Every structure is written in structure tokens, then in C-alpha cells.
């Protein structure tokens, strides 16, 4: 699986003009299931992100995880993270097929919630508009 994790002060996702998920301080997570990802990969990625120490402590150092801060996560499916850029038009053949991608995306969101993190989501496969305020900015790319 592949994810882009952004520390945010707030984030929301809209589908057809309606807010379907919104959070205050926490993490905006764009996630892509890759072809061949084993069934245990979503839980492993969720555990890694839950422990990722990218929030400021009292000394203003990145030393706290989202669990430490009580923040929330907005999880949005993003198959374009699998882009192959050998030419000028990206290809997405390394992304998991849609049914498998949906299952891994949903499993990731559940596994993150199982880590004690409040989770909001987008809608898999929908045309979504994402708004966020990146805090820092802090943006981390994770391939697992």
C-alpha cells in the first residue's frame, strides 16, 4: 500500500457538493492499494501511521503521534498514487483492481479506527473535492 500523510489543522472532503467527511487537527491520509498487496497490509500501514511521531510536543519538536494528541484522521482513496510516469500520460496498472482496492481501503480505515483514532472517510471511487490546511507543512510519503 502507498499513502501520503499530511499533518493538518483541518480537512474535509465533499462529494456532489456535500461534506461526507471532516476533521479538525489530525491527519489527512491519501491511500492507494497496490496490485498484489496482501490482506494484512492495511493493518500494518494503519499501525505505522498511528505511531508516526509528526506532531509537536511542548518543546516544539516533532515527537508525538496522532494517538498522543487525540487527533482524528480523514482517509481518502487515491488510486492515482500508483501513477507510472514513464511517459507524459500516467498509467495506473500498478494500482489494485477496483474491488480489491475498495476492500483494502475500507480495511485500512477500520484498522486505523481500531488503533483508537477517530476516522472520517471519503467515498471510494467517487469524484471528490478535498480541502485541507497543511500544518507545518508536514507531508510524508509511505510505501509499505
Task: Give me the secondary-structure topology.
Elements: E1 2-15, E2 18-23, E3 26-32, H1 41-51, E4 55-56, E5 62-64, H2 66-69, E6 72-77, H3 98-114, E7 119-121, E8 128-143
Helix pairs in contact: 1-3
Primary descriptors:
144 residues, alpha/beta, 6-stranded mixed β-sheet, two-stranded antiparallel ribbon, 3 helices, 8 strands, globular
Q: Give the proportion of residues in helices.
A: 10-25%
**Mean of residue pLDDT values:** 96
Q: What is the CATH class designation?
A: Alpha Beta
- Helices and strands, in order, run as EEEHEEHEHEE
Helix-strand category: alpha/beta
Based on Cα principal axes, name the global outline. Answer: globular
Which architecture does the CATH hierarchy give at level 2? 3-Layer(bba) Sandwich
State the CATH superfamily name. Answer: D-tyrosyl-tRNA(Tyr) deacylase
Radius of gyration: 15 Å
The tally of structural domains comes to 1
CATH topology: D-tyrosyl-trna(Tyr) Deacylase, Chain: A
Please tally the helical runs, counting DSSP H or I stretches of 4 or more residues.
Answer: 3
Q: How far do the termini sit from each other?
A: 5 Å
